[in-house]
Amino acid sequence: MRKRKVQQLEAMAAAGGRSLWQEALRRFRRNRMAMISAGFLVLLVVFAAATIIIDAVTGNAIYDAKVISQDLTHRLQPPSKDHILGLDEFGRDIALRIWWGARYSVFMGASSVLAAIVMGSILGAIAGYYGGVVDNVIMRFMDIMLSLPYILLAIAIVAALGPGLINVLIAISISYVPEFARVVRASVLSMRDQEFVEAARAVGASDRKVIFSQIFPNTMAPLIVQATMAVAGAISSIAALSFLGLGIQPPLPEWGAMLSNARTYIRDAWHITVFPGLMILLTILSLNIMGDGLRDALDPKLKN
Amino acid sequence: MEKQLAVKDLRVRYETADGVVEALNGVSLSLEKGKSLGLVGETGAGKTTLAKSIMRLIHTPPGNILAGEILFEGQNLLALPIEKMREVRGNEISMVFQDPMTALNPVMPVGQQIAEVIAVHEKVSKVEAMEKAGEMLEMVGLEARRAGEYPHQFSGGMKQRVVIAIALACNPKLLIADEPTTALDVTIQAQVLDMMLNLRKQLGTSLLLITHDLGVVAQNCDEVAIIYAGEIVEHGELREIFHDFRHPYTEGLFGSIPSLTQKADRLNPIKGLMPDPSDLPAGCKFHPRCKYAKAVCGNAIPGTYDVGGGHTVQCHRYGSKEYESEG
Amino acid sequence: MPETPILQVRNLKKYFTTPRGPLHAVDDVNFSIAKGETLGVVGESGCGKSTLGRAVLRLHEPTAGEVLFEGRDVLHLDKNEMKRLKEDMQIIFQDPFASLNPRMTVSQAIAFPLLIQRKVDKRDKTALAARVNELMDMVGLARRLANTYPHELDGGRRQRIGIARALSLNPKFIVCDEPVSALDMSIQAQILNLMQDLQRDLGLTYMFITHDLSVVKHLSNSIAVMYLGQMVEHCPSDTLFERPLHPYTQALLSAIPVPDPDYAMDRIILKGELTSPINPEPGCRFARRCPHATPACAQADIPLAEQEPGHFVACIRAKELAAGKAPA
Asked: Could you tell me the pTM of the whole model?
């Protein structure tokens, strides 16, 4: 049985059988910077997930004792052997706070963008496939939203709903919906008149079948690239909102909030601003480089 | 007769991450002054690579001219410094591309586009250049007063006329036309080819016409070269090739075109597919598809044999002792 | 012909709305095709030949007219009836790359119609694979290619996939929209032979749309010539080449470069280019470029009329020209 499987695979390799996804992956692997960025991001996700597991297992013991609780006798201590990134203005270990804070950036950034993708895709697909008045109503509304800067829109939404984790999430997802609606609508429009879509209609496929089996798989590539870039934007928005005091509230170890609280001590203790800032920078930079890499790998125009 | 252009043993390859594409594998051909040569081949045979090599428009990387000479009036173009080559381009050798839609600058009036080429190569004032541009438009059958219009105001056939006007603006000695009428409808193609023929008569321009259409060649060329997998497999005078083709590939090409003048129930296509240029077969590149192939064809690259009157064939059947001795 | 034609098209119109007015892509076209035969539809780009093919299949909903397939009025069928009819009427597209979904393997593409029309149970993998293999054999695709993707294959093989997909539902009638135009000569000949074999073996009826007159002559029993949305000449294939009556057909035929250096070309070089099919003026649409035009030509629309038995021409001077000028 096993042998047959191997033979089958060999035959397949001989006859090609590499999907566009596999080819894209192969191209992506050749891009060194993008691979390093992807590696950094994978580590970040693993570390962020680890804190959630640790908290669950220890019943928040480490979180309560080290990340939140203050020790004013050791405040602003520079990096040392015991605390490699030093202690903050309340005597908390910055390394641990950054580690524990990763979850806000990583999971909130990702989930807000995911929510935006779902809403944006549905709106964009409807607008693109049906066109006409529906298209006009949806897209003009999106245009209005796009005419406001993201951060301003997010601030307005948070101001209306009040600060807090969930509200920040809602604010950021809503502000990213128009972008995804646009991308999906554009690819649906370009796919709608392709001959293979016409071919599917010619064999009697319904609208729904055409959208899901023919059009949607082909809009994934631009969507993935856009999503990567949007996560970077969302992370910086979360940090910015927290920095402004509208997002995640102290003592939660969110990177933007850490930066905001530390800024008064910037002359006396460089380390408490530099390290959270560096983490924000590295995360966003990695996402952008990976996004560029994905675009190069997925763009069929670079093929051949 | 004086040779206008002579290509000798030209080898060009493209080196990409996915492998090495051997685009031209020792191409030799020549063109006499004032004559026209039709270069016929299918997709991927190396037609456009040859044209771009003559113009020195191959991007390196991934392209790489490995060996060979391109002699234009005795001067090796491949050895020219790039500034000298720029003077040759447009002035002595011009090129017309397949797609007239993308060959023109959409935000510049067509008259100005023609005048610009003239201004680059000739020492004339702006006004004189514009006047000459108007003359060129009339020469290709367009009204001079349309010089101020933009490309989108012209139809496909008219745009190709403008492209030809630009190519001929400096009265080049050699025109390279890469599938100039493939994107056009047949009645418009007739107009454009007709115009090109008349202009060549007037100006005495030599022509290298690259096409896949044997009909276009029959009506416009003095000589024919058939290219397959980066090699010239047959070369000769027009009637020689059309009435007495020798190479099995040429035979296959003629068997593939449905005839307008004769009735045939079935076509006789060549079996198989064009070889992958990054993985060419050993020996004769055509042997896997050839109905006359013998063992020697898979082992040795055939020589080029003269079958009379300058008609050359690159095939073992026309002079290889091994081929004859095999059963 | 005693048998009723498999397809009858009457006064078919397809107008598109554009900002500058209605575009008459197909304007009052009539024709019929007998079972097992091939109608060639020729014309230059923008003449409406592709739109005509799609309107017959209702891929573009016609503006007016009648399409009768085996006597049934296609344009008044409801959604379910139409879906069933698509088993009988299929289409092969021009661009063998654009007509295949880049994310589907060869076998998925061929199986798609079978699953949509529930010809094979989705869970019955063996039956599905058997049918796909059968179709691949039929069009000359090696079975080992079943799991490859279109981008890994050349144009000829891709077009074979398109043909296999069209054949998968056992259709009776296929619209072939420039199926060989994008292919190289040697591959084009292979595909044309394949299509001929399939027609003979399966008793197919073709509506073969192309701009290439030599291909049409090779394949068709009869030919219809289109110009700016209208049919200007329609007759048996041989007649068209021996005795073209419409001035446009004559110019079109004379413009084809014949691959014979000694063939005396007597080209009729037309003046000007296509006029716009948006809001066309009444009268013969070819009149402006026609070497034989008279003021009468622009007076009123000219219907297709039977000049000789089986030879339809839309030209008011057809009789006169036929008499005055012997065929070349």
From this structure: 0.82
